[in-house]
Amino acid sequence: MKKERVLLLGKIPPPYMGPAIATAILLNSGLKDRFELIHLDTRINRSLEDMGKWSLAKVFRNIFIYARMKIILLTRWPKLVVIPISQSNTGFIKDFFFIVIARLFFRKILLHLRGSELRNWIDSNNPVMKRFIIYTLRLSNGVIVLGNNLKYLFEGIFPEKQVYVAPNGGNYSFKKSVKTEDKVRILYLANLQATKGIEDLLEALVIVAGEVNEGFVADVVGSWRSENTKTKCMEIVSVNNLPVNFHPSAAGEEKLNYFSNADLFVFTPRSPEGHPWVIVESMAAGLPIISTDKGAIRESVIDGQNGYIVEAGNTREIASRILELIKDKSRREEMGMKSRKFYEEKFTEEKMVENLTSIFHKVISEA
Question: N or C: which terminus of the chain has fewer CB atoms within 10 Å of its end residue's CB?
């Protein structure tokens, strides 16, 4: 049977950010066995430090990307164009041209939202910009969100039947390392910025250390996004003599090893999230998870079952849950087993591919 052609737009690493990781995973997933995937790399930043900086080179890169898209549409004629959408004015204006180009070639367009900031961003704009955003979104044939509780973001923009749900999923196999110490190993893995909860975790660990100073060690893995945040975090660790090890951002086998060596995963973002890959990875690794109710996290971390949902910024609550799991090994292991079970039931690569395949075919076949 002939495969339908699908043009998939999106950044790929580096830098290692959620949307770029998502694109790379999709391109290497079982989707390539079900569709003829054509990828257009929309990346204009080559490093985290490059983000947010204007340059003439970036302008030319964008022009080249638009030209490349036109060539693909002319020569490959894909049935469907999948476009990840930004949640900022600058990013969305770039997306506008992708959407318009696809419309000019009469292609089916499916948007992919990888966050949950959309409503806040739209509402922060003036009436003219709001109308422009909504008009542009409606030029497409529908949108994918990462969880059922994110469908509300498009109320009044799309009919409910055009808002599709496809959580992230990955193909992960972990071999638990043999413990050589009695200490509980806590893992935090994300970009190191205040909005991702790194300061809250360290402040919580100050409280934890006051009760079980010899009972844990924490691995913090990621890249610093702010010198001020770095200075503040280093000071918290130094002044309180916390057993915290900082590591640079990791990928591939090195990243998976951090999960394999951990006993507990903590990721407590303050700002909106989509369905973070680190949550999927920690579930696959069979770890109990402490996180916040941001984006679709609550659909993966079931409070009291495979982890705890805590209030964002509430360091005492974060500390209380960490202490509970440090002290109760059986509870920790029970939650970890449930994490792995939930992953196998809903968040494998196979499940993600099944969801996306169904959505792609539905959009392609609609009149």
Answer: C
